[in-house]
Model the fold of this input.
Amino acid sequence: MPAPDLETIVSLCKRRGFIFPAAELYGGFANTYDYGPLGVELKRNIRDAWWRAMVRERDDVVGLDAALITHPRVWVASGHVATFNDPLVDCKKCRQRWRLDHLLEGDYGPVKRDAAGNPLCPNDGGELTEPRQFNLMFKTQIGTVADDSAIAYLPPETAQGIFINFENVVNSMRRKLPFGIAQTRVSFRNEITPGKFVFRTLEFEQMEMEYFCFPPKDRENPAEYLELHQQWIAARLAWYRDTLGIEASRLRIRNHEKAELSHYSAGTADIEYLFPWGWGELEGIAARTDFDLTAHGNESGHPITYFDEETHQHLVPWVIEPAAGLTRTLAVTLLDAYTEEPDEKGDKRVVLKFRPNVAPVKIAVLPLSKNETLRPFARKIYDMLRTSWMTQYDETQSIGRRYRRQDEIGTPVCITVDFQSVGEGGNTGDDAVTLRDRDTQEQVRIPVANLMAALRERLPGC
Ligand code: GAP
Done:
């Protein structure tokens, strides 16, 4: 099935409690969203899947949770104060502000131009101002005195917290190269351009890892370093496909052109997804060389090095950085899972075909009806399962409607408790329940004694 249009997903997200536009009560707030009860579970599951693949299942990566608000010179060293800018233009007629690079890429529709070829306002065709550089970092102020020494920044990425803790991790964890430090955290960017749902927001979560390795033998021709870069690109692409279950044909690698590369980068590749509006970045995997550790060494006056016990030399490690957007990955997971298919009556059945590991709710326990004889049995099953898996209990409306509700939020397994389970008319029940599979809609009868094992099999990685 082709990817759904964005409006379909935005509306489902609001209706079913995944994502709400922020502050609607006050007329909304551009490029910000609130994650509802199901959105927060989905986000947590994607984050956990990343952490599991990047930290728990690897011997060579450890985790970190660095302070959000940190010394402002961190952002001087990283280059963000001087260069983390977007080129902005204003329409002289309607005053609407645009990001020039996005405008030229056609993000706001076909590019209108005047006779001399200058781009015009996508809104009303008005003349645009000369571009001005606009820094994307949010400034804040520490304490009560509003002078320059009190300025701090909200972090625009998580990476710098990792670089400034490199020595702490090496010393406290006795780490040897190569090894990585991983972190998931909120980041902030003053994005003025109209975002596409949670694709581009003011506040978003990132999942970043800095993988430190020995410097290459030949700085100008760093073959072994570029080979490591390729390995990380392959590993990260496989994660989206095999762990999150994203359709392979909607994923691609885009290598940055030489002109696009930052001056310190030996190469950057983006993992892109085919969004409803075209290909867009999901994760960047950058070969950052020794730029960041050197820059922090220079700015702080304390060189950051690693002591190689074999050669008895201090060296500055090189870095590969897979930097993913958690909230953007969440949008992709939703878009990619969305399916419409006819049900047995020919009506539309909407199913979010999440992999069980990311599904916000794993199991729904559904007594056939509200009948008093079913409830204690069904509640017992619910209480048994909820300690192991995110489980919902629902006894309102017809069973068909309840299945449909669970399909629409992507619950992989529904468990139905009926009169056969509990017994009726003086007969004892069979102490079994019906398991219904979300995707095939097949139903099987399982004795309660075998239920946990049957669910473990159906919910891998949960
Ligand atoms: N440390 C490198 C870094 O931050 P980036 O390409 O600017 O690299 C990494 O960001 C990822 O963070 C992007 O691929 C994207 O998924 C996500 N991201 C960046 N800006 C975002 C925004 N305004 N809203 C949502 N996600 C964003």
